[in-house]
What we know:
alpha+beta
Amino acid sequence: MPTLRPSTDADVPAIAAIYAHHVRTGLASFEIVPPTTEEIARRRLEVLKRGLPFLVAEVARTVVGYAYASPYRPRPAYRSTVEDSIYIHPDHARKGIGRLLLQELIALCEAQGYRQMVAVIGDSGNAPSIGLHQSFGFEHAGTLRSVGFKFNRWVDTVLMQRRLGAGDTTSPEG
Length: 174
């Protein structure tokens, strides 16, 4: 059974390796060239400086997946909305690790008072990610057709959204 915990500096090389695989082989990320380990470390610190969760999943003391929440957009009106990101090592895909990570990420963001979580899913054919998000109550909010070009083809982005806590039933302060 995987264990979840907050990420540490020591996890950055494993996180970078997992992400690099997805950049090189898949459409979940629209990056073309994997970022350096230093860039991944910088991005992780940005998330943590905002007080947002950045989690890892371990099996036998090896990082096999990670997830984090980041601001959906930088403008103040979006301050109650976060975007989730989840990446799993290919040898551990479809073993429930993404489910554990997303469940914990949702709980942590709700506890911090966030009201909406948005999933920006690369590739409208990404059935595993779409299905995972649907199973946690995310609803389809739209598809942006052909907004990315990777692997010599146009790729869609699927937007999904889930209410957190009180959602939009009260003001963010209330």
